[in-house]
Structure formats: C-alpha cells, structure tokens
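Example 4.3 (complexes with small molecules)
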Amino acid sequence: MSAADLMRSGHVDSFARDNLPPRESWPRLDLAAAGLSYPERLNVVTEFVDRHVAEGRGRHDAVIGPSETWSYQALAETVNRIANVLTRDLGTVPGNRVLLRAANTPMMVATYFAVLKAGGVVVATMPMLRAGEIAYPIRKAKIALALCDASLVDELMAAQALAPELSTIMTWGDGALEALMGKAGYEVFEPADTAQDDVCLIAFTSGTTGEPKGTMHFQRDLLAICDAYGARVLKAAPDDRFIGSPPLAFTFGLGGIVLFPLRIGAACVLPAKVAPPDLAEAIERYRATVCFTAPTAYRAMLGKLGERDLSSLRICVSAGEALPKATFDAWQEATGMSLMDGIGATEMLHIFIGAPHETIRPGSTGLPVPGYEAKIVDEDGKEVPDGTPGRLAVRGPTGCRYLADPRQAKYILDGWNVTGDTYLRDSDGYFWYQARSDDMIISAGYNIAGPEVEACLLTHEAVAECGVVGAPCPERGQIVKAYVLLREGFSGDAALAKALQDHVKASIAPYKYPRAIAFVTTLPKTSTGKLQRFALRELARQEASAS
Ligand code: 3UK
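Answer. The structure with 3UK bound is encoded below.
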C-alpha cells in the first residue's frame, strides 16, 4: 500500500505523517473485521465532549476534581477556550505536537481535549519525570510548545535547557493561561477538520530497556478502544463514576480514567492523590463505581478494607502487570468482587485481551477482546498447539506504529503485533500469562517463568511484594532468585527464607523454587509502576560476582 491509501490529512504540519513507519511494516489494521466504522473526517472531541452537550446531557457531571466539578457543558467551554488560546495566541496549527505536563487534574483533561480539538498531537508526560527524561520526547517528537501545570514547571524549564526545540511554555494555575482563556469570543471553537487516520497522540513507552519509543495513534484509535474493550468487555454505564491511579500520560490511565467514561457520558473522578491508601479513601468519598489500577495497588488496598467502605465499586480492572491468582482470590474473598484482568500495551493503546465479568477464569488474562485476534507463535512465527507456551501475537483495530524507530520491525511480524510476552492458550481459548519473554529464567535446562514463582510467594502470609529473576550460576546457568518485601511483623531471617522455599516447593513444581532469597525494603519500579526485573537481574549479577 502507498501513502495514497491514507485519507486526506487535516494536518498543516506533516511531521507526524512523515514519520510514520513505512506502510509495509505496519500491523494489519482492519476496522471492518472488528465491526467498527468511523467517518473519514473525524475530530474525536466532538464524540467525547460536544456530542453529549448537543444531545442534552450538558448538565451531567463530566470531570470531578478535588475543588471543582465540571459538567459536560463546562468541560466543553473550557476546552474551547484553551483551543482558542492555542490557535489564536500561541500559533498552533493542526499537526503540531504539544507537550502536556500535569498530574491527573481537570485542567489536564481540558488541555488534552483542547489540543485534540485544535488538530494537534498530544505528547503527555508523567509528572514524576525529570528534566533529562522530558527532554527526550521533546527532541524526538520535535515539540515547540508545552502546556504545564505551574507547580511542575521547574523540571520542564530544566528540560528546555537540554531541548532547545521547545520554544514556548504556557502555564496554568498561576493565571497565565487563564488570562488568555478569559478573552471574549473564546467560548466557541470549530473543531479542526482532521481525518480519522490523522495522528493525534504520541505516547512514549516507559522504556524498561533502551530509549523510550514514541507510539503514534490516530484520531479513530481513541474511539476504537472505547467501542471494542469499553463497550464489549467493560460494559460500564452513563451513571458510572470512574477512578484510578495511572497517569494520563500512560495510555492505561488515559483510556481507563478519561476516554471510557467520556465516550458514554459517564463521569471521571480525579482525586488529588492516588497512592493506594488515598485511592481507597477517594473511592469511598466519591462513591466511585469503576476502578482502573495495577495489581500492586489492589493488594495494597486489601489492607485498607477494614477502614474504608469500597462498596460503591462494581467494576475493578487490573492491568499493567500480571494479576496473580492469589490477589484475585483475596480481593474476591474480601469484597465479593472479581478483579477484571486485562493485558494492554502502549503500542496497542489499550487492553486487547481480557474477559467480561461473566466469563472470567481466575488466573487467566482472558479472551481476545472482540475485534482483536490473538495467537501463540514460536521463534519462527509459526502457530504452536494449544497448551504450549510461546510468543503472544495480536492484531485488531489498533496497533503499533513507532515514531521513526527501527524497532518497528521487531514488534511486527507478518502484520501481527508481537508484544514480547510469553503466553499459552488453553483448549477453551483462554490466554494464560507466563512472563515477559526476556524475563524467562533458564535454570539447569528448565524454563521457569519468574511471575509464576512471584504469584506463589504472594500466597504466603509474610510476603507483601516480590520480584523473581534469574541470577548467574556456574553450574546451572541461572538460579531462581527472589527479592522479597515482607509484611509488617515478619523478619527476614534464614528460617523464614527456608519457609518460603518450602512453600514454593509444596505449591508448584519443586524445580521452580527460589534457591536464593534476598529480603529487601523496596523494589525497583518504572514510572508506570511496573516491577523492573531487568534492574533486579542486574543486582543479582552484581551480587553473584561479588560473592
Ligand atoms: C505487561 C501485562 C500480564 C505486558 C497497558 C493496559 O501496561 C500497559 O502498557 P505498557 O506499554 O506495557 C505493556 C506490557 O505490560 N502487561 C500489561 N498488562 C498485563 N502482563 N498481565 C497483564 N494484565 O508485558 C505488556 O506487554 O506499559 C496496560 C492498558 C494500556 C497500557 N498501555
């Protein structure tokens, strides 16, 4: 296929389109096969915001923050005012990338939609990123303008010194953006006439190894995740109130906290703090009904159930990392609710395997989201029989398109997205997570999935969190080594190490037991909250060479 297959772009600045991967290295994207169709000209803000006002839902809550609640009408007007500032005062034209830096706040949501409405391309950054980490996307995506919460501007200014591409920083919270937003006539804004396949979002991966990759997503992709996963698996309703912890710069948070609710006219709750104890408190305070967070946060909230009333919750989605069956069971026992596991990826925009409540199988990630297909392949890309672990390959309406990155060729195999995860499919079609493919431990010829050992350790009362990796060993190649963070009241001594080893041997195949156990007080995490197994592997390597 040639560039002519792309629809007529609404972009004036063609950077994003010019830097899409060559068409032959795209995944297959088949909307018709997924049962989805969108108009050729599409600006998604019409769907997420303005349509609700036009259809009479303008007074319904859209965004609920710590000190303000915006109806759809109020959100629409705020978005219009910012979009006017972008185009009339800051010179933004369709296709320009705009960097956003803020915590999950109502203004973050409004600036996000304002950039989209003006036809811009959003590059959102995590609040905790430091100057060097912010400079990278600025340079890679050639970003000239940033909108930033004034309380987070220092690090952005330090990034600007490293990335001279960034010429303008506009802040809010200090009155700068607000002063421009107040201008007469700014309350209405005509959406930019973008094509459904114009890029509107470049999401950078957290870069567990190597440099972060910019994943490019189209206008229509933002709707596709809502109309596939949202409508067919999640099945929330307009009176739901969504809440969660992932930052909006992480597409897990973008979809789960903002896009899914706004697609159906529901409300999103954005509390000031979302660490697990605060999240539990906010769920109670706002009577939130749908929660998106990581397995670790559900485990941490389990400890708060005595103090907090979480009975408003009716849908709890877990993603980002494997959900151990022990966590599923403990949550169900304590709340009566089934956690909905789902695997997503920045490259795929959101969740592509999961199961609706009725068909959940504890311990399994679930079934391909209707509209997506998934299979397990071997090293050569050949499908393996059910029950055999192999590489997960998926395709559907969304997929991987890296911004100018040779690693595109590694992620795509014959039009399928290869996520880097080892999975197996059972004879009923359910997908069972084994490990990140590069996290498989090979010890004395056995293939051992670190997460399986972690899941087992987590069923022991002493274990709060853990990470299991391969440590170099002259005899066995690698041995299984567990880094364990204990619950309060337990002490990490030889007797407990032995008890944990025995626990594993008694629960799963004994050759998987951790021959080495180290008790730690923290575990290394990425900015999206994932365990950094490569950092533990490096630690294990150092410890092995020191001993
Ligand atoms: C891992 C899981 C087992 C897996 C994400 C939901 O996590 C997201 O995106 P990332 O790009 O990471 C992708 C990788 O994370 N993973 C995610 N979910 C699960 N492993 N079980 C799971 N349920 O290795 C995957 O390849 O940071 C998750 C929605 C949007 C996202 N971007």
